[in-house]
Amino acid sequence: MPKPLGDEDGSDGHSSKICRFYLWPYLATPINTSGEFVVPMKRSVRPLFSILLLIVFAVTLSSRNVVHQSLGSAELDTNVLVQIPPRSVLNATLLKYAAIDIGEAQSKQEIEQFLEGNFGSLGRYRTFATWRRFNHRDIRARTSMGTPLLLRSPNFYRYWLDFRRVLHDWARNKRFQPEIMSELVQLVKHPIDKYNGLVDSDKRYSSCAIVGNSGILLKSDYGELIDSHEVVIRLNNARTEGYEGKVGSKTSISFVNSNILHLCARREGCFCHPYGVNVPIVMYICQPVHFLDYTICNSSHKAPLLVTDAGFDVLCARIVKYYSLKRFVERTGKSLEEWGSAHDGSMFHYSSGMQAIMLALGICDKVSIFGYGKSDSAKHHYHTNQKAELHLHDYEAEYSFYHDLVERPQVIPFISDNFKIPPVVMYQ
Predict the structure, then answer these.
(1) Domain annotation for the chain: domains and CATH numbers
(2) Rounded to whole angstroms, how far apart are CA atoms 241 and 244?
(3) What is the pTM of this model?
């Protein structure tokens, strides 16, 4: 019996048999009439190797195509499932101009003067050292001229030291801090939770309603819906009595600007609690000198009286200025350098309502906005007869910001990419 083929090319006799009878019979080893195998020449094996190499090459290409299509399909599926919105390419020039604080130099100079005790011509603050609450004249003790001695209360020195301390700390933090949004739970929610007897938790409130003061609230009955939120934030001591069906009655946080506290400081005991003495107050500083009112009134407040972090103030200022600059250029076609004269640049400021929304973004999982917007037939404030808006603010720019919060939060500038903006719903 002759030896089977295959030892020379690395194959065995069994594999040759399979090829001979099942794959390519026309390449099988020739058989003579006697039934014995005839040993072929070596060159007869070369066509077999060539075809095998072609087959292997074709199979390899087919496999790569299948794998590529599978990966492409998987990548498509991943994109469909994740759907991460791309970050908007922001205008670098607008970002640069929005980061410039026109009134920064003047503000620093004023703060230095206040820390030195120089209140210049700031009205009632100029005579701070002679306030009646800090001094009294002892008619029994007289000078050599017979004039009653002016005795200064020990509280004067305590208030003065507290004023210098809080103003210095606030001014030191007044710089751009993009990560500040992630710190609001610790800065604001923790003190409020502690006052309410709750354990400090890094979890945000489940839902928050921000109630603005626009007269458009009188056109809808949102009271019950507003009160259904875990936390309700109201602005600048706006009245609720008599408007419960429109604006609700629940108040969890009172958000005010320091001008409100400045008015409250004139009252006996600095009473500034229209929603009750147990409602915490969060306040942003309009003028550094208002820290004097804060220092005096803070001791009389039972509930927390919190001042917003200066870095948070800077972030809010930059965002609003960015939208104001953008709107100014688009509407007028003028250069960015002309924006300051059109908006009184050194006095330009965001509204209380804007910063209250920013606060809610940092401490709430869901945010509902009520009473923001205007109408020709509506009053500026639902609880007053004021019709005109303050030129200090650019409300139209802020409305553009609110629109982006609802529709495309990824385009909002200056907020860190590490902070996730919660869902926002705006009720008209």
Answers:
(1) 13-64 (no CATH), 92-128+153-426 (3.90.1480)
(2) 6
(3) 0.73
